[in-house]
């Protein structure tokens, strides 16, 4: 199968306009006759459901939570980018496009990224109209900050709770459509399979998590907006119910999975404190705007940080990257923290942490200003660690945070299964090998508010689908397969908990497929993952009842999927022998230890096709063509 | 350290529940409260017993999924702290902790510590939005909003919809939750257009969903993990009176 990205021809800046004009439309009077399933109510899913509902489609919306407002997007702190140039600092659509494609280390599709930058401005307008209480200046205009190494201030924010406010805006718009009857909400449902009829996505099987009943839902098209797979690593900044299940089941039905090895490790998280830890807490990247990162110059210096004099400190980011300093991109900051700890300069009990110090900022700006900017983060840090960052430096360490990889989609956000569209973090589309801060919220809302309403209309208008009901054999077959798997899980009368097995998988991935990767380690992981999977099915404990709320059963199913997915993750990492973005292969580095890309051999998106249990996945390549920017080695020196 | 737990167990809405004793061994002070419950569940699961059902997701105090009564107080002893952010260093060796679900007519119990809070969605659905469709919004800076108004709106908009306010209220009223949304939108020009209809519809939805009436006890403010204040309820009442007056 050749992958057709469906990128329209013509100059970059005109592609989206032209494409919208060339797209077919669905007559307003006919829209309600078309049913669309949207799985997920994060920024991507909720904005899509609201927009398609407003247009008049019959939307069925699904989420695993008890309320759509609880999707993981709610936890985003720092902000959302948009090329508004409100600060008059020479920002533009082109600059946002350029920064994003460069930040992604030239592993994203030009046309998608340009479109993202184009619609970014509309997102802010839309959110303000909804009543999102973004931060303001005294004159009443919107405030911006610079974020994640950008040299312009283009990030809009609502205190440290930007994701919450954007999600509530989208959620409220969606609930308005629920009241109007154009969106029907199904909460506490977990999608466990996609149903294909005549090769097209026509429905889903989901489990009602309260009653345990399996349900069939039929539609003209299906959208997945089910988020990223960061919790494969067990410990991550993602919410504990985040999962790869929906995407993985779609993959097994024929949707290609692209660039799974492109994972983002966030440099500023609260370090791991013990074995019972269930998740890691992010300390917003914005802290690096004023905090200075350092370690003791001498290995084994166990003095209290406040007792270590300036002369004995190594502000290593400022030293190595004089022009970006503490604001280097995430992947660079994370790798350097690891390198310091590997050299034995790590701090704290575990030696797996570096300092993030606000002393200088408090001296320069005053405690009140620092509290105004970061007060809620400092409070959160204190609650978790019992230490006061106003008085001593924070300890931070990188943690798994975001999945750039995801289901492969074309320019229309359609996967390799006709009719199955993928939105938000669940797709692979816009961030290449590394995502810039404040651009996931932008992408989720771009996909939902401003892309899918047009591209889905085109699909519906141009693709006749046969009349089908949930009695179709394809539904029966899929439901049967889902039921069989649940039965198999419940038959597990072993002694190991899903959590123990998940933790083991997570540790393996973190060690071998984490911040830096090498051939031998990846091969070790690829040997170990099938053993763990075997152990799971031999020895997992899943007590309780299927016809009832059974969170351990849900969790066991997600872990089982991660145990399959992890193998693809490691396979992709092994095959990509270059370093790029978040994927650092030790074999491919420059003389001074920076990531070395290999454009000659790897300027493509790797899209993997499922070949059945026990068979190696098949690699398909979508070449990345750069007509407008010239790939250069990233340098932040 | 070791703590003793008395946990509400109830396998479904139509069966009788009761408090069951458990002991959490090897609790470290750095553990969060929910991680302590995880560890109890790990032991139960490994033995083949049904683990304690409780809800959580973000585990950093923002999604509003978690929420249980800890010794009779929603989210436990710390102010402005969700139970997922409560840490075991708050307790000492040998303590006994009673853990129960939210009790409120409008939040029917599903299992153990998990209740159904969809009534909150119904309140939002009744009017907790601005009626703008996607597309066609004016430039964001075309609407100027004084910083103080934006900041105050944000104070109200911070509500995480966890239900602690309802759980603590002797009337099981949802006034704090509803008023936070009413206030957020009434402080902004975008929300003015529909202000009257919104407050009336949301207050009606609150009654329809089975929440009790507010008698200004103020316990809700004391237990709100996000510090939503009673001022919001006063604003809602004022908006409501305004709407009623305009409709006469
Ligand atoms: C702590 C943190 C801070 C962040 N801060 C920022 C930031 O400042 N700026 C920024 O741009 N990005 C940030 N990000 C990234 C950003 O928040 C996410 O990438 C983005 O919100 C993902 O949105 P989404 O809509 O794709 O998915 P999600 O919000 O993850 O939503 C997934 C939805 O799918 C549902 N779902 C999942 N599986 C199933 C299933 N099997 N069946 C049914 N439903 C299912 C869930 O219920 C949920 O509704 C942050 C991420 C984290 C973890
Ligand atoms: S789990 Fe999200 S607020 Fe507690």
Order of helices and strands of chain B: EEHEEEEEHHHHHHHH
Class computed from helices, strands and strand pairing of chain B: alpha+beta
Bound molecules: flavin-adenine dinucleotide, FE2/S2 (inorganic) cluster
User: What is the number of strand segments of chain B?
Assistant: 7
As a percent range, the share of helical residues of chain B equals 25-40%
- What is the total number of structural domains of chain B? 2
Report how far the terminal alpha carbons of chain B are from each other: 64 Å
What is the CATH homology-level superfamily of the domain at 266-401 in chain A? Succinate dehydrogenase/fumarate reductase flavoprotein, catalytic domain
Strand order of the largest sheet of chain B: 2-1-5-3-4
Distance between the termini of chain A: 42 Å
Q: Which percent range fits the helix content of chain A?
A: 25-40%
Strand content of chain B: 5-15%
Proportion of strand residues of chain A: 5-15%
Quickly give the CATH architecture of the largest domain in chain B. Answer: Orthogonal Bundle
Unreliable spans of chain B are: none
The geometry of chain B reads as elongated
Strand order of the largest sheet of chain A: 5-2-1-9-17
The count of strands of chain A amounts to 19
